[in-house]
Amino acid sequence: MKYQVVFQPSGRCGEVEAGTTLLAAAQGLGVHVEASCGGAGVCGKCVVTVKTARLDELDMVSSMAHMSPLTDEERRCLADEDIERGARLACQARVFGDVAVTVPEAPQSDAHVILESGEAHEVVPDPVVRRYELRLAPATLDDARDDMTRLIDGLHGAGVDGDVTIDTTVLRELPSRLRRAGYHVFVTMRRGLDESAGVEVIRVEPFSDEGNRGNMRGGVGIAVDVGTTTIAAYLVELESGRLIGTASRMNSEIAIGGDVLARISYAIGNEHGRERLQKLVIGDINDLVRELVSPAQMDVTDVDEMVLVYNTAMEHLTLGLDPSFVGKSPFVPAVSAPLDLKARDLGIAINPAAYVHSLPIEAGFVGADNVAVLIAEEPYKSEKTRLIIDIGTNGEIDLGSRTRLLSTSCATGPALEGAAIKHGMRAARGAIERVKIDAKTYEPSYKVIGNDKWQSIKTGEPVEENDVKPRGICGSGIIDVMAALYDAGVIAKSGRIKSALASVTTRVRETGGMWEYVVAWASETETGRDIVVTQADVRAVQLAKAALYVGARYLMEQYGVSEVDEVILAGAFGSYIDKKSAMTIGMFPACDIERVRAVGNAAGEGARMALISLAKRREAARVAREVEFVETAVEPDFQERFMDALAFGER
Description:
Elements: E1 2-8, E2 12-17, H1 22-29, E3 47-50, E4 53-55, E5 60-62, H2 72-77, H3 80-84, E6 87-89, E7 99-102, E8 129-135, H4 147-157, E9 164-166, H5 168-180, E10 184-191, E11 199-206, E12 220-226, E13 230-237, E14 243-250, H6 260-269, H7 273-293, E15 303-310, H8 312-319, E16 339-342, H9 343-346, E17 355-358, H10 368-377, E18 386-390, E19 395-400, E20 405-410, E21 431-437, E22 444-448, E23 454-455, E24 472-473, H11 475-487, E25 508-511, E26 514-520, E27 531-534, H12 535-559, E28 566-570, H13 579-584, E29 596-600, H14 602-612, H15 614-626, E30 628-629, H16 638-645
Parallel strand pairs: 1-7, 9-11, 12-15, 15-17, 18-28, 20-30, 21-24, 28-29
Antiparallel strand pairs: 1-2, 3-6, 3-7, 4-5, 8-10, 10-11, 12-13, 13-14, 16-17, 18-19, 19-20, 21-22, 22-23, 25-26, 26-27
Helix pairs in contact: 6-7, 10-14, 10-15, 12-16, 14-15
């Protein structure tokens, strides 16, 4: 049997087989429903509302009776009042009749706050793409060379060495373009990592004294950091290295799953799953390209080069590679070497003759994004021993100096970025980003994105109308609140919420058999519900931070040091994290706080450097081969040390 499913307010509808989950139906129809846990019924983010009504315009009757019964997971994640109004978890509710479903819309002001930039680094521009002015002799009866030969001879005469090839799309239009330009043209050529391979012509356009593409004589390129959760892109003038613009967005694959393992499972277990995932991320990249070029008064086809960095799993999903084996031991990727791929083959809407350069990966789950971090921070050139922690859904850790360089990967999960947390959310307007708790009264104060002032509101106190009301807690706020709860004595070193405090403060209470702490009362929130931190939330953060800590400790032991000279925090939200809070919860080995610094999106900065410098691309290829990968999960005492690292406090 097949039944009709309608998603509102988008109006998208279609027929699905009986027993299909609402999440699978939404994914099949291209409706975004956030599912951070990939449909495991854990995160509670995929809440939708099933309507009970007759829809005359569609000639159907929607009813909760057309759905499967409530599951235990739904009863755990949903409040009784929400269930009464028809709320269901899309990943749990199965269709057994015609149904209309309402998907909550994010507020128009819900622009995600993504740290696009990293700490700026100097690099001498030496791009693989260069433009040459060329004035050719017109074809005559006495000089009837074919147009391709005429162009190549002209380039050799202008000092271009080696073999010259011409991209097929350029060759198709070459005759008319040469003649329309009066044989006075700009020729854009590209070289690869191996210069002995020659150069390729990727663009021929009429010469202009002012130059083309927004009055820029040099070509332009885009560097993209494709994160599991966020994607950041940088538009750069290649010959000068000048940053023209930045843009960012959430990775649309979040609708499939919040972590890479959920996405790999989807790619393997669903027909056309791999193609759908690739289409989502390529669509995001194309949206960012359009967003970048428009203010610069350029067209997407004016972009002549792109560099992509990502973790290993995201590389497979972005390039359309089979991810079946990268997610299981021994975690062998399809390819480790740097790649040069035609943009048109990937469906990326830039100059169709342009190339997309993919930086190399190290091993397993240590991908090109970590190589980008390394070439940006250059620990291999430092006399100091540096510990670099790239905080994200999949955390990477590097340790070393000019004498030796180690790396490892940690499955931190999305908890530190707001997912897998009951009231966790992305960094957007209304997200609690900073938290303090009074150790005597246990009363909190917090700062919300969109409001510069700290708020401290007790039960019954009025909320100022102009205040931005909280809707949830983002990554930096989650780290802050965990440190604040520990410092105030609300949670023990083990992470257990102290239930005895319920007799002292109403902030500590038991709900549904689980202890929790109330950060914001319903009267002060935009959702009209209390925003809480549950015991399960504390546990999720413990698992994530323990993975980072143990990984760092293993590297330090392999390197032979008991402490490091410097700790560098990188990542899309690394600069928003309070360093003291991170150390308090035991995210990394304790050191002098003055020797801890945040560098922002170092992976994005490394991608930008590789975009404008052939030397940096070669450096990336060399470093990826030389860095020593340490597989910490196979260590015999890993579980014991991991359990010990769950404890809060500086270590």
